[in-house]
Amino acid sequence: MAVVFKGFSTPVVGRTETLYDSELVRQDLMNHFNTKKGERAFDADYGFIAWDLLFELEGYNTINLLEADARRIISLDPRLNLKKLQISRIEYGYQMNIVLQYVVLDTLEELTIVFDARSNNRMATYSVSSL
Q1: Which pTM does this prediction carry?
Q2: In a domain, 12, yes or no
Q3: What is the pLDDT of residues 49-76, one digit of tens each?
Q4: What's the total number of domains in the chain?
Q5: Do the Cβ atoms of 103 and 78 come closer than 8 Å?
Q6: Backbone angles phi and psi of 117, in degrees to 5
Q7: In this protein, which residues make up the domain named IraD/Gp25-like (predicted)?
Q8: DSSP state, 122?
Q9: What b-and-e string marks burial along 5-40, b requiring 16 or more CB atoms within 10 Å of the CB?
């Protein structure tokens, strides 16, 4: 299969990697989710609100705010179609289960992202499964 998307990932530790296709789109999405909203210079709307809501009391409105912001972020990327989004509270944060369709690649993938308050570097962890 021909390469459709190509880009680079520059981790904090380690070497710069070349990413292709779904790996690149996923990394772009994770960069958005791992950035605290308002943290990016000159773009106050970039980022995700989960990091600000980790210690909020459990409530219906909190989950709705997270869901609305996650939908906003995913809709900003024309390479993705959101098929399903489920957010749940876990012991030290939130877990998002997202089913995404990669538009040009025509593949489906389930992405599970965990936002954990115990994380020292404030980076969400994720796992991927193909559908």
Answers
A1: 0.87
A2: yes
A3: 998 888 776 777 899 999 999 999 999 9
A4: 1
A5: yes
A6: -65, -20
A7: 23-104
A8: -
A9: beeebeeeeeeeeebebbebbbbbbbebbbbebeee
